[in-house]
């Protein structure tokens, strides 16, 4: 037994718990020798104190796992940070390594869930089914204002063709679109299926629809900004199901005002950690940018729900519990993509 496992138990402090997390994780807990304390609080420097004798924390996309929090986790004797998501931009991996804390994630649960949601956003913005739904319920059967466009023949730019971007490319291909792609790694299978890898600028200049599927990191932060927006076709559609900070929000608001951006679908938002996953219906929202975004008729905001399917939640629970069990038993995980530090 190594030094990591000598001092750890099988107890997990599970942060940012939602009712559906409990449903899916509780379903599989009996299959694993693991004990979970479900906490509603987001993990941050203040809520670290909620950890009692647990040696594992389980976190989600908006938990704060920066260097300062990791130092506090180390003092609490935390040995494993288990992300129950794919993206890991909220975790300081160097700080985790320095403090001898293992970090694992769910590298792929259902790329279909997110890719299909991206397509749902495109179709909603294009064909305005959300407006039609409300309109006919009020016995207004007029079509004025619902004019859409054929997806067939349009150029779709995909930035990031990993698990999700690849599935999305195949969905888009089914609609008869021309596909341009940019990724730091070229997928030859997609190339053979007719996807054209090109420079980012070419995508910005030629695409009618741009969908973001790359991770958030120092290279991709504010990929969509004043300069890149200026290159785009007038009335371009931008879809972001990846991470909010890929888009400079104030720049995209300006571009929406001039109709440079004709449609914006975002499942993620730069400042989402203060808003998403909670009911704020009785509150005065202090974030003026999200309020401005939601005031545009051609903007669709969903609250980080792209992953939210039965299949994805099942896989998230099974993989997260499997990752933890594997780290407890053998201090490693067979799927190398799951172990980040
Ligand atoms: P992935 O790792 O399989 O694919 C990411 C792709 O992006 C890779 O092919 C990688 O080479 C590419 N990439 C890296 N840097 C790039 C750059 N600078 N420019 C262009 N491409 C670059 O990840 P995935 O499973 O496809 O997930 C993609 C992103 O989707 C995640 O990082 C996460 O942020 C987001 N996500 C969102 C939800 C949701 O519910 N909205 C759910 C899961 C994942």
Top keywords for this entry?
341 residues, alpha/beta, Rossmann fold, 2 domains, 5-stranded parallel β-sheet, 13 helices, disordered N terminus, binds nicotinamide-adenine-dinucleotide, D-LDH-like, 2-hydroxyacid dehydrogenase
Taking the sheet with the most strands, its summary is:
7 strands, parallel
Give the strand line-up of the largest sheet. Answer: 8-7-6-9-10-11-12
Write down the overall mean pLDDT.
Answer: 96
CATH topology call of the largest domain: Rossmann fold
Bound molecules: nicotinamide-adenine-dinucleotide
What share of the residues lie within helices?
25-40%
Task: Note the total helix count.
Answer: 13
**Principal-axis shape:** globular
List the helices and strands and how they pair.
Elements: H1 3-6, E1 11-14, H2 19-28, E2 35-38, E3 56-59, H3 67-75, E4 80-83, H4 93-98, E5 102-104, H5 111-127, H6 129-137, E6 155-159, H7 163-174, E7 178-182, H8 188-192, E8 196-197, H9 200-206, E9 209-212, H10 226-231, E10 236-240, H11 249-257, E11 261-266, H12 288-295, E12 299-301, H13 310-330
Parallel strand pairs: 1-2, 1-3, 3-4, 4-5, 6-7, 6-9, 7-8, 9-10, 10-11, 11-12
Helix pairs in contact: 2-13, 5-7
Bound molecules: nicotinamide-adenine-dinucleotide (NAD).
Nicotinamide-adenine-dinucleotide binds at residues 86-87, 108, 111, 114, 159-165, 182-185, 213-216, 219-220, 241-243, 267-268, 304, 306-307.
């Amino acid at each position: 037994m190594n030094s990591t496992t000598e001092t750890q138990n099988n107890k997990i402090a599970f942060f940012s718990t939602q009712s559906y997390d409990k449903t899916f994780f509780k379903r599989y807990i009996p299959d694993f020798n693991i004990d979970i304390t479900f906490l509603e609080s987001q993990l941050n420097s203040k809520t670290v104190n909620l950890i009692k004798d647990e040696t594992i924390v389980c976190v989600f996309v908006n938990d704060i796992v920066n260097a300062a929090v990791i130092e506090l986790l180390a003092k609490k004797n935390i040995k494993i940070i288990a992300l129950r998501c794919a993206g890991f931009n909220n975790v300081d991996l160097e700080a985790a390594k320095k403090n001898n804390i293992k970090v694992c994630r769910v590298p792929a649960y259902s790329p279909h869930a997110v890719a299909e949601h991206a397509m749902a956003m495109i179709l909603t913005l294009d064909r305005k089914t959300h407006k039609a739904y409300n309109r006919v319920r009020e016995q207004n059967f007029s079509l004025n204002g619902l004019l859409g466009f054929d997806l067939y023949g349009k150029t779709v730019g995909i930035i990031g063709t990993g698990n999700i971007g690849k599935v999305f490319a195949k969905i888009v291909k089914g609609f008869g679109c021309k596909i341009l792609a940019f990724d730091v790694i070229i997928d030859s299978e997609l190339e053979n299926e007719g996807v054209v890898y090109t420079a980012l600028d070419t995508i910005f200049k030629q695409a009618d629809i741009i969908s973001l599927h790359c991770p958030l990191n120092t290279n991709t932060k504010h990929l969509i900004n004043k300069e890149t927006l200026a290159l785009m076709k007038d009335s371009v559609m931008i879809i972001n199901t990846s991470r909010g900070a890929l888009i400079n929000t104030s720049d995209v608001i300006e571009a929406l005002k001039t109709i440079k951006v004709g449609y914006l679908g975002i499942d993620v938002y730069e400042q989402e950690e203060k808003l998403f996953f909670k009911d704020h219906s009785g509150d005065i929202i202090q974030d003026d940018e999200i309020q401005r975004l939601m005031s545009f008729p051609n903007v669709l905001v969903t609250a980080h729900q792209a992953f939210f399917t039965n299949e994805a939640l099942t896989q998230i629970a099974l993989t997260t519990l499997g990752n933890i069990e594997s780290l407890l038993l053998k201090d490693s995980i067979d799927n190398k993509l799951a172990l980040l530090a």
